[in-house]
Amino acid sequence: MPYLGLINKYRKYLPVSAKTPVVTLHEGNTPLIHAYNLSKNIHPNLDLYLKFEGMNPTGSFKDRGMTMAISKAKEAGSKAVICASTGNTSASAAAYAARAGMQCIVILPAGKIALGKLVQALMHGATCLAIKGNFDDALNIVKEISAKYPITLVNSINPFRIEGQKTASYEVCEYFTPDFQAMPVGNAGNITAYWKGYKECLSHGFAKRLPVMLGFQASGSAPIVRGYPIAKPETIATAIRIGNPASWKQAVEARDESKGLIDMVTDAEIIKAYKLVAASDGVFCEPASASSIAGVIKLAKKGYFNKFKGGKRARIVCILTGHGLKDPDKAIEVSAKLNMVKPKLSEIMKFVKI
Ligand code: F0G
After folding, report:
1. What residue owns the CA closest to ligand 1's atom 11?
2. What does the H/E/C string look like for 296-326?
3. 194 Cα to the center of ligand 1, angstroms
4. Would you say the CB of residue 155 lies under 6 angstroms from ligand 1?
5. Distances (CA, A) of 264 to 236, 261, 268
6. Cα(81) to centroid of ligand 1, in Å?
7. 224: which of 11, 74, 131, 348 lies 20 to 30 Å off by Cα?
8. With bands split at pLDDT 50, 70 and 90, how would you rate the model's confidence at 312?
9. Domains in the chain, CATH or no CATH each
10. How far does residue 83's CA lie from ligand 1's centre (Å)?
11. What is the tens place of the pLDDT at every residue in 4-35?
12. Does the beta carbon of 288 sit less than 6 angstroms from any atom of ligand 1?
């Protein structure tokens, strides 16, 4: 049977019926990659797996939630959708709205959207509006608009987004039940969704137990870690540049129920992890995604995984939420410079170590 997207595959566990028009780009079914090089680099007894959500149709995990949100909006007869976004939600909303024949309006923080994400929303024909303000300001505006006008909000406060995104946990559990799951936390919808997914997997018998949830925020945008909203969040990981997460309470619940933690990593730690995973295991994710790896490295250094010894290995799934190609500017800024050489064998061989 061909793979026809996550609504088709997980229909039994999703709030859809035969009447729901399924708007899909065949999202989901993303690879779970054993990062054997990176694992060794971090800790002798870690087995790190990368759930590469950058392999979704628009290059981020948002597609899981968007296939549900747009299908349900269409079912309800909605003609238009709106979202605030740090980039990926807008790219995904624009693509699925285009496919559904709906209008899409996106409100973005001016100057803080990675180039690839902006290009996607524009190409898919969304009405893109930049505001002088951050994601939190944009979210307040779209909430107000969707309350006043017949426009469906497709940010993760839309419960159908969470339903779609929880399917990633189902996919992980088809391989194994991880000891830990590490992921970035921004508006906190995704940690909410994964935790819901894992709890459902346990109740359906797909998981043997629940993983410990490890969430990571960027230190300049770490409201949950610090315990108060951040008025002016800052980080190079623009996807998670959020000062007042909508699903704050649910993220704390996931942390506490799983006996996990939500910690923060610096921009320097994020960039280091971002380069390391690309260079050691060939997986190119965006900076925000690398905060999950940066967090695991930080915890390993502190001895968090030391109880795993003598051949006992900790299996950690790191969620790489978005593709590295989304943010070429950041990649170019932090990577080795291009050498100009004459088209001559002897000149070229000066650079080849053999
Ligand atoms: N990673 C990436 C690549 C993201 O784009 C986001 C959120 C997150 C992690 C955090 O997920 O918000 O569910 O905790 N991006 C949103 C957007 C805010 O507008 O694209 P979260």
Report:
1. 186
2. HHHHHHCCCCCCCCCCCCEEEEEEECEEHHH
3. 13
4. no
5. 14, 10, 12
6. 18
7. 131
8. confident
9. 6-56+160-334 (3.40.50.1100), 62-157 (3.40.50.1100)
10. 13
11. 999 999 999 999 999 999 999 999 999 999 99
12. yes
